[in-house]
Design a protein that fits this description.
The chain is an alpha+beta fold. Among the domains are: 83 residues, Phosphorylase Kinase, domain 1 (2-Layer Sandwich), CATH 3.30.200.20; 192 residues, Orthogonal Bundle (Transferase(Phosphotransferase), domain 1), CATH 1.10.510. 36% of the residues lie in helices and 14% in strands. The chain has ten helices and 15 strands. The chain has a six-stranded antiparallel sheet, covered by helices on one side. A three-stranded mixed sheet has the order 14-12-15, with no helix packed on it. A two-stranded antiparallel sheet has the order 7-10. The longest helix is centred in the middle third of the chain and has 83 residues. It starts with a strand and ends in a 45-residue tail after the last strand.
Length: 524
């Protein structure tokens, strides 16, 4: 599939077939992006002759350059080379053509009102003005005494104007379409002849006589179309082609019913003048007072229509904005609900965590009370390497045969092998009277003798030794190190620590230390 002019067949949904031709059909299609409906002409060019292919290429070229409110708009084409088919995407006019309108009037035995006829007459003349002069007609307020000179670009002759090629777009609006037999004059002053072109009932005398013809041949076909809308029959009718040609050359046709105004009847007869020189141009028709009046009315209706289209577009845009606003509100509501749910989840998690913390704290309290009921005070279990609290005396309890360095000044809290775990229980033990006496003796000894620094703390056979500190009177208690529940305990020699430096607060006051100082003598 080869697409051109921005048209891709895959972007359209196929609908029903609305017409047939000698080389294909016309189908309704809907564009998926916006739902707009088009008329697609599917033309099979494989069996076409070279002349017909050139004619098709000419139609595509003409349509791509014609832009007018009363000409069926061309949107693009695509070529399916595998199936030898070309697709022309045209504007869709959903109310049929004037041929179907005439048939309805015949079946219902009704007539078309004159105001509708004048409106259609004016619209078709404006479309032919655009084709013949290469520009839009001037406004109805501007008087033009002579027809303008066409631009040097192109002049388009339709050559097949008839009710079946005029499409209805609403109740009173029509559009000229089907430029399949159109020709382009590169030189506006040049004329050309064609032996047989168009529909026989609407061919002009110069075509039948094989004479050169110009844009006035389209005016003849326009007069035939307006006559048929008034009488519901073509102006020239015959059983054979020679008889039809004779009537066309003579300009013999039945009169238009008198229920229509003389101005309308005279205008149609003017368009059906046999001599092309006596036939009007599109610019001449637009100078008629009735044309000017209906053009003014048509311009007002066109303005109202344009305003209506703009209003509809604004309403669609407003609806789109409201839809987006509602969508944003829904998203905001969803985010708010998620925020509320997240807050509730966080609050529930915090409550569960607090409950777990309280449970663990209570369990810790119970374990502390059950493990040290003799002390009368709760204990704290530390899972990391630590040193006893400052307000503690030194009491080591070890129920394993290990060697503990009694030189506490050299003890390092980091001197443990990787992977080892030690549990240290620090508790507050009631002060005994003998400890106070030992403290006083130690104080006296210290005052009379030179301080001796102990080298090693020896563990008693019961693996327990109580150290009485001279600072016990200042509030120090006893610290117990319990390694009972820890297996594979190893106690290598600790590293040296500089314990002779003073332990002080930030404000300079000396702190009590759980370690033995150099000026302290421990008596056994």
């Amino acid at each position: 599939m080869e697409s051109s002019e921005g048209v891709n067949d895959l972007d359209y949904d196929l609908l029903e077939v609305i017409g047939h031709g000698s080389f294909g059909l016309i189908r309704k299609v809907r564009r998926r992006s916006d739902g707009m409906v088009f008329a697609r002409k599917e033309i099979h060019y494989k069996k076409m002759e070279e002349r017909e292919r050139k004619q098709l290429a000419s139609e595509v070229h003409i349509l791509s350059n014609l832009r007018h409110p009363h000409i069926v708009r061309y949107f693009g084409r695509s070529i399916d080379r595998a199936n030898h088919t070309i697709h022309l995407y045209m504007e869709f006019c959903g109310n049929g053509d004037l041929g179907s309108l005439i048939k309805e009037c015949q079946q219902e035995n009704s007539i078309i009102p004159e105001n509708i006829l004048w409106s259609i007459f004016v619209q078709l003349t404006l479309a032919l003005y655009r084709c013949h002069f290469g520009m839009d007609a001037p406004s109805s307020d501007i008087l033009v005494s002579s027809p303008p000179s066409p631009p040097s670009s192109v002049v388009v002759l339709h050559r097949d104007i008839k009710p079946d090629n005029i499409f209805r777009d609403g109740e009173i609006y029509v559009k000229l379409g089907d430029f399949g037999l159109s020709r382009i004059l590169d030189d506006p002053s040049r004329t050309f002849a064609q032996t047989y072109v168009g529909t026989p009932y609407y061919m002009s005398p110069e075509i039948i006589n094989h004479e050169p013809y110009t844009a006035k041949s389209d005016i003849w076909a326009l007069g035939c179309t307006m006559y048929e809308m008034c009488t519901k029959l073509p102006p020239f009718r015959a059983m054979t082609q020679p008889e039809l040609n004779h009537k066309i050359r003579r300009g013999i046709f039945p009169p238009i019913p008198g229920l229509y105004s003389m101005t309308l009847r005279d205008t149609i007869r003017w368009c059906l003048a046999v001599d092309p020189k006596r036939r009007p141009m599109a610019s001449d028709l637009l100078m008629i007072d009735m044309f000017r009046a209906y053009r003014k009315e048509l311009e007002i209706l066109e303005l109202r229509r344009e305003l209506k289209v703009r209003e509809n577009n604004l309403l669609k845009r407003e609806a789109s904005v409201l839809a987006k606003e509602e969508e944003l509100k829904n998203k905001e509501r969803i985010l708010y609900e998620k925020e509320i749910n997240l807050g509730k989840a966080i609050q529930a998690h915090v409550c569960r965590s607090q409950t777990e913390i309280d449970r663990l704290y209570s369990k810790t309290q119970e374990l502390g009370h059950s493990g040290e009921r003799t002390t009368g005070r709760p204990s704290t279990v530390l899972s990391t390497h630590t040193i006893a609290s400052l307000h503690c005396s030194s009491s080591v309890k070890d129920k394993r045969h290990v060697t503990i360095d009694n030189n506490l000044s050299k003890l390092s809290p980091t001197h443990f092998s990787p992977g080892e775990r030690r549990q240290i229980t620090i508790s507050s033990i009631p002060i005994r009277q003998p400890l106070q006496e030992n403290t006083s003796k130690l104080s006296n000894t210290t005052s009379n003798k030179t301080p001796v620094t102990p080298n090693r703390l020896r563990v008693s056979p019961s693996h327990r030794k109580t150290l009485d500190s001279p600072l016990h009177s200042q509030g120090l208690l006893r610290a117990e190190i319990n390694t009972e529940t820890i297996g594979n305990l190893r106690n290598p020699r600790p590293t040296v620590m500089e314990m002779w430096k003073k332990n002080v607060w930030e404000d300079g006051d000396e702190l009590p230390s759980p370690f033995l100082r150099k000026n302290v003598t421990i008596s056994n």
